[in-house]
Amino acid sequence: MSGPSTLNVQLSTRPQFPWRIVDVIVAGIFIYAGLLKALDPARFAMDIDNYKIVPWFSSVAMAFYLPWLEIFCGFALVVRFLYRGALSILTALILVFTLATVAAKVRGLDITCGCFGHASQHWSFPAHLLTNLAILAALLALCVSNRSAKPL
Amino acid sequence: MTSSLVRQALILAALALLPGVGEAIYFRHQISWQSAISPSELVTVAQVHAWGENVIWVDARPDEEFARDHVPGALSLNEDRWNELLPQFLAAWSPGRKIVVYCSSLSCNASREIARRLRKEAQLPDVFVLEGGWEAWLKSK
To answer: Which residues in chain B have their CB less than 8 angstroms from residue A82's CB?
Structure first.
């Protein structure tokens, strides 16, 4: 039986169209950034190493792993499978990236963020920070908007 | 709900491990896990001075910094204009000359990247990175 109350529940759990657009945009950013880095892990390892936070061994491990994590989470957002897990991982990642960027700036390091491969090598600190904050805001908005969604 | 979220995150984290490990195996001969630059590829200003004239300096900093000042005789070769500047550099290079790449300071990575590309893409031997970069050069003057 499909009464009005059932219909209301179904409608409330279905993502609204504008949020799907945000999903796809955020997912696209992470998939694109992940692919660029996965194609050139040596460069990404050097970019991570430049932050002078972790030893070289860890930079290499992260250079192999993080791009794929971004890509998988991006696809999870698009297909809405393991959606909340993907949102939480991407939010944690962008928080860590932002903190690392601020820490590098405070320590006076001349860094290349490495976020989008060669495309981002000359981003200024404000541009870098604003991009991260915009993505973080979008992710947090998606978290809030999907709190009522049915978990997969 | 929290356990579901953690479970989902763990599944994604585990899934990403598979291609990550695959890529690590694929690139095992191209990336060293020991150090970003092998100690033999890192040189100090004093070492470069000891090599005498048999050195070609490469400035990996952006054009405006190169225009402001650079090591005497250095050639500009940066990532912004790699395709444009590489032929000029290759015309100036001759076999047997050591190549020393520098960027602005100890924390910059442009020199490492340019040195890597000179070895990998231009297939040049004897490519070194100046420890401390331009700042180290200025201090040594």
So the answer is: 8, 11-12
Contacts of B10 in chain A (CB under 8 A): 85
First and final C-alpha spacing in chain B: 64
ipTM over 0.90: no
pTM of the predicted model over 0.80: no
* Sequence ranges of the domains in chain A: 16-145
Q: Is A5 on the interface with B (CB under 8 A)?
A: no
- Sheet of B75-76: strand order equals B42-43, B127-130, B98-102, B55-59, B75-76
Contact B8 A118 (CB under 8 A): no
Distances (CA, A) of A13 to A10, A16, A152: 5, 9, 12
How confident is the model over A10-54, as pLDDT tens digits? 444 555 778 889 999 999 999 999 999 999 898 888 888 888 888
Is the CB of B61 inside 8 Å of chain A's CB atoms?
Answer: no
